[in-house]
């Protein structure tokens, strides 16, 4: 046999396409996330409502600030 033929016969087997540990981890994590959402759903709903209310408040105040000539996102320089 030539050296090329011996190298072809000695080639490593391809890796397994199935990773059981990955699928076991996913099968554990996804139900836990759904359980967390079910248990903390009320909290997430209240948090979202608070965020929406504060966004509306900032937007309504932002119009008054813009009328005064300042941008709502203006940054003051640091004192040295």
Write a concise keyword list for the protein shown above.
80 residues; mainly alpha; 3 helices; 68% helix
Please describe what this structure looks like:
With 80 residues, the chain is mainly alpha-helical. It has a domain at 33-70. 68% of the residues lie in helices and 0% in strands. The protein has three helices and no strands. The protein has helices at 3-9, 20-39, 41-67. The protein starts with a helix and ends in a 13-residue tail after the last helix.
Note the beta-strand portion. under 5%
Largest sheet: none
Helix content: 55-70%
SSE string, helices as H and strands as E = HHH
Compute the average pLDDT: 76
- Identify low-pLDDT runs: none
E-strand count: 0
- Using the alpha-carbon principal axes, give the shape: elongated
Structural class assignment: mainly alpha
Number of separate helices: 3
Q: Tell me the distance between the termini.
A: 80 Å
Taking all Cα atoms into account, the compactness measure Rg is 30 Å
In short:
With 80 residues, the chain is an all-alpha fold. The chain has helices spanning 3-9, 20-39, 41-67.
Write the layout of secondary structure elements.
Layout: H1 3-9, H2 20-39, H3 41-67
């Amino acid at each position: 046999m030539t050296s090329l033929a011996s190298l072809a016969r000695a080639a490593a087997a391809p890796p397994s396409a199935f990773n059981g540990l990955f699928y076991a981890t996913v099968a554990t994590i996804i139900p836990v996330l759904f359980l967390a959402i079910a248990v903390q759903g009320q909290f997430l709903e209240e948090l979202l409502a608070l965020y929406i209310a504060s966004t509306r408040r900032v937007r309504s105040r932002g119009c008054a600030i813009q009328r005064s000539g300042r941008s709502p996102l203006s940054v003051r320089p640091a004192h040295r």
